């Protein structure tokens, strides 16, 4: 037992110091009863909701992993969507031990647990690497308590898993190159791909670069034959690892290949100077641009120059450091690391890893520095002091002071004023204080030392408290007072299949928390067919990862997507789509029911092809798909072709006398955001009104080009945010933006407000209307002959009675996972209305049946089993050779 504690003392010591530092950093949160649910980003909008929904569904049955879940957007299978986030995250399953009403506590605990294992596995790497490190404890503390971990831990908790896996992948790479074993590399590869294929891609590139450097620097007996042999071994080992992960990987990859990020931002060619300044600042502070989040201990300002001054003995580490710097500085390389998309550096934990090794190397030299070392260190520190003074950034200045303190004690050691062990202890304590300061900068007062800023708050102000962590969800960010009450009322009184829409819903995944079917989603792997459909109709709410967002509450689209209930605040009742009647209300929260409800199956007796469809504007397209299905003409055999014409009405308008802003030469100049543009429209009675803005462009002296447009009619308010076209990964370049203004325009006036000063230019501004006179007839026609619709997790069935051949549309995203049967005979499915599932059915009475099977899941299971068998044999051979 004594030997056990002696051998593992560094792990126990690390655990104790980790717990102590975490307690110190998070004491203010504990005092305020705050959770680690970050309420101003994806943690709030995605991660917590997905975690809660997934854990609760597993509590019902573990088989729910393999089901089609109708509450994920318009319906998605669990593996293909949650495989990207949570299925491969072993930490999340600890949530099963918590009651459903305590999952906010579990969520916070798991963030801390992931942090712990980041440092733990760094320590494991150091102790098991051939280059045994003697001061691994200090390296593990620097690696775990970095800005990447502090930031990603709360903003994107699952990013931390990549930082956990990385030291293990590096260790596996080293062992493979040392001819020790290959099965460990396969195992880590499998874990990486099951955890998240997006980060697995980054880890592979990072390890491949490291492997090349390691081979040419560390391997003594090199030859072309040996290199090719090692490459072959690595490739086989990698393939086995990928094979074992295929049960999760194949369905996720299938979904990924179907993602169409229409109109995504172009990759920038160069970063501006502010990026490079922030990159330098971010080495020791919580700076974050393009996820270049490094923010490590100030000891790095000494360790980096010293390592380069002793390049020969640190060649592997220094070359890797240079390569990582190049990726950080060149946008094209950053784009490669992000799958040839926009440049982002979510891999920056690797930079902290190498800096941590450099710090260990500094201590291994027993802090014995030469005159040249001191010159290099002082030169590095002067750069940071000058940067701090020029930018008036006291965050940088204070962290540089820490570096000077470290340098002072190192000088005392070299002068032999104090004993080496005592100096090490003092430096360890100073580093701990330093990283505690870094954590406090991140969470509490990021800008506290910034003299030019009036914002003295860190991100902790956005952490939700345990007591009311659900309140923002319950009120949809104060948009609706009693959402949870309204949803429960609907579900308790109506057990049929339908979708619920929530007015002004900016929390797109809200349906995951309350377990209802919606028309919104915020997911990284959105169905590309649905995204393409939304984009084609110039949905003003369309953005990357939020492609649907209730399709701007358009009446016909809402009905076609089987929306039966609208939940709305009293002041926005006039924005409820046409044909809804009041169903119930709870104080100022109202429920409206669609009296023209369509089930999840719609029946068309005619179709149109692309030539005719493309001639229509976005408003006319919406009317058309309520009358005829838009399909590929090669898919249709007997259904008749539509030859009628659809035409929307463009109504006149003028700038009202009360308007404070004017339109001149297709430009609106805003010098004061409080000023309003008031437009008077012609008659809009019994019509749904749309504002069409073509080639809308915003120019300002401010570098930030994101803005918001607020449209008002009476008490109703619609707010649309437009992302920065140069800097935002969510920006979408659409030639036309269509804004739904509803069917009740008070006094025929629209008030438009702009959030920022600048020039808003466009090529055309028009108002379109669609008459609702024929709308009820359109719905009845689509519903005719469709009876006994039954919807379960993996299938939809119905009885059909039609007097002519028909196209039946299943109102969910098109996927190869769907199979269809008419009278128990398989029929081909095809894409309907750009994004839905369609089949052709002959006239007469039929039983129709749609069944969903997760794409490639069976193939994935077989390949995974084959991979496990091969891997087991590899382990056997390795152990046999050792004997």
UniProtKB/TrEMBL annotation:
Keywords annotated in UniProt: Membrane, Transmembrane, Transmembrane helix
Membrane-spanning ranges: 12-30, 105-125, 137-170, 182-213, 234-259, 289-311, 318-340, 346-362, 374-390, 396-413, 425-444, 856-877
Domain of life: Bacteria
Keyword Membrane among UniProt keywords: yes
InterPro entries, A to Z: Uncharacterised_YfhO
Pfam families reported in the protein's UniProt record: YfhO
PANTHER family: INTEGRAL MEMBRANE PROTEIN, INTEGRAL MEMBRANE PROTEIN-RELATED
Protein name from the UniProt record: Bacterial membrane protein YfhO
Source organism per UniProt: Coprobacillus cateniformis
């Amino acid at each position: 037992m004594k030997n056990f504690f002696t051998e593992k003392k560094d792990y126990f010591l690390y655990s104790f110091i980790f717990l102590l530092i975490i307690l110190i950093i998070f004491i203010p949160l504990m005092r305020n009863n705050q959770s680690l649910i970050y309420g101003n980003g994806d943690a709030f909008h995605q991660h917590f909701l997905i975690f809660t929904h997934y854990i609760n569904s597993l509590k019902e049955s573990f088989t729910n992993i393999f089901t089609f879940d109708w509450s994920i957007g318009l319906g998605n299978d669990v593996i293909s969507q949650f495989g990207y986030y949570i299925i491969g995250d072993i930490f999340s399953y600890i949530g099963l031990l918590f009651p459903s009403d305590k999952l906010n506590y579990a969520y916070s605990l798991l963030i801390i647990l992931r942090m712990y294992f980041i440092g733990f596995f760094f320590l494991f790497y150091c102790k098991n690497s051939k280059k045994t490190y003697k001061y691994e404890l200090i390296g593990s503390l620097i690696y775990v308590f970095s800005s990447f971990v502090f930031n990603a831990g709360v903003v994107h908790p699952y990013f931390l898993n990549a930082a956990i896996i990385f030291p293990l992948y590096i260790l596996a790479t080293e062992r493979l190159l040392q001819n020790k074993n290959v099965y460990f590399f396969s195992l880590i590869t499998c874990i990486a791909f099951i955890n998240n294929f997006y980060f697995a891609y980054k880890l592979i590139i990072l390890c491949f670069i490291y492997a090349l450097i390691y081979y040419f620097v560390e391997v003594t007996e090199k030859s072309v034959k040996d290199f090719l042999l090692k490459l072959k071994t690595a490739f086989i080992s990698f393939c086995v690892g990928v094979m074992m992960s295929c049960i999760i990987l194949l369905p996720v990859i299938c979904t990924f290949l179907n993602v169409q990020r229409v109109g995504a931002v172009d990759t920038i060619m160069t970063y501006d100077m502010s990026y490079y300044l922030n990159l330098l600042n971010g080495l020791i502070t919580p700076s974050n641009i393009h996820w270049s989040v490094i923010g490590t201990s100030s000891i790095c300002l000494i360790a980096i120059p010293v390592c380069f001054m002793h390049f020969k003995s640190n060649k592997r580490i220094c070359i890797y450091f240079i390569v990582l710097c190049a990726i950080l500085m060149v946008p094209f390389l950053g784009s490669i690391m992000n799958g040839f998309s926009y440049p982002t550096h979510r891999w920056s934990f690797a930079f902290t890893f190498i800096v941590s090794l450099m710090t260990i190397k500094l201590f291994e030299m027993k802090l014995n520095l030469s005159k040249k070392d001191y010159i290099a260190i002082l030169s590095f520190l002067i750069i940071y002091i000058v940067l701090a003074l020029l930018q008036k950034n006291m965050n940088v200045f204070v962290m540089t002071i820490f570096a000077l303190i470290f340098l002072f004690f190192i000088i005392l050691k070299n002068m032999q004023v104090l004993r080496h062990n005592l100096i090490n202890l003092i430096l360890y304590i100073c580093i701990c204080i330093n990283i505690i300061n870094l954590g406090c900068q991140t969470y509490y007062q990021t800008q506290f030392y910034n003299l030019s800023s009036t914002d003295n708050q860190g991100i902790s102000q956005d952490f939700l408290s345990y007591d009311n962590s659900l309140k923002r969800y319950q009120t949809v960010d104060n948009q609706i007072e009693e959402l949870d009450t309204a949803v429960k009322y609907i579900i308790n009184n109506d057990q049929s299949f339908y979708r619920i829409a929530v007015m002004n819903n900016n929390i797109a995944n809200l349906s995951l928390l309350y377990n209802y079917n919606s028309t919104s989603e915020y997911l990284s792997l959105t169905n590309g067919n649905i995204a393409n459909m939304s984009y084609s109709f110039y949905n003003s709410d369309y953005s990357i990862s939020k492609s649907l967002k209730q399709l701007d509450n358009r009446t016909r689209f809402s009905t076609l997507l089987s929306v039966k209930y609208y939940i709305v605040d009293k002041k926005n009742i006039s924005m409820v789509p046409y044909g809804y009647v009041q169903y119930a209300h709870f104080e100022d929260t109202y429920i409206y029911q669609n009296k023209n409800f369509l089930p999840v199956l719609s029946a068309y007796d005619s179709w149109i092809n692309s030539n005719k469809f493309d001639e229509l504007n976005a408003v006319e397209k919406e009317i058309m798909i309520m009358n005829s299905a838009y399909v590929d003409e090669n898919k249709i055999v007997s259904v008749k072709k539509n030859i009628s014409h659809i035409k929307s009405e463009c109504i006149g308008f003028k700038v009202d006398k009360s308007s404070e802003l004017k339109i001149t030469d297709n430009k609106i100049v805003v010098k004061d955001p409080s000023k309003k543009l008031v437009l008077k429209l012609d008659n809009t009675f019994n019509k749904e009104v749309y504002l069409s803005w073509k080639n809308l462009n915003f120019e300002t002296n401010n570098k930030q080009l994101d803005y918001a447009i607020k449209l008002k009619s009476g008490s109703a308010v619609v707010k649309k945010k437009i992302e920065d076209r140069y800097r935002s990964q969510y920006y979408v370049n659409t030639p036309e933006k269509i804004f739904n203004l509803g069917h009740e325009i008070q006094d025929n006036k629209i008030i438009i407000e702009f959030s920022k000063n600048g020039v808003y230019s466009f090529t055309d501004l028009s108002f379109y209307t669609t008459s609702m006179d024929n709308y009820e007839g359109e719905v009845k026609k689509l519903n005719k002959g469709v009876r006994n619709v039954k919807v379960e997790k993996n299938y939809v069935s119905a009885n059909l009675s039609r007097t002519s051949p028909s196209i039946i549309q299943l109102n969910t995203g098109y996927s190869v996972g769907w199979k269809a049967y008419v009278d128990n005979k398989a029929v081909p499915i095809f894409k309907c209305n750009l994004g839905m599932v369609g089949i052709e059915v002959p006239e007469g009475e039929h039983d129709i049946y749609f069944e969903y099977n997760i794409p490639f899941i069976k193939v994935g299971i077989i390949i995974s089993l084959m991979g496990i068998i091969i891997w087991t044999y590899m382990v056997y051979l390795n152990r046999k050779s050792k004997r």
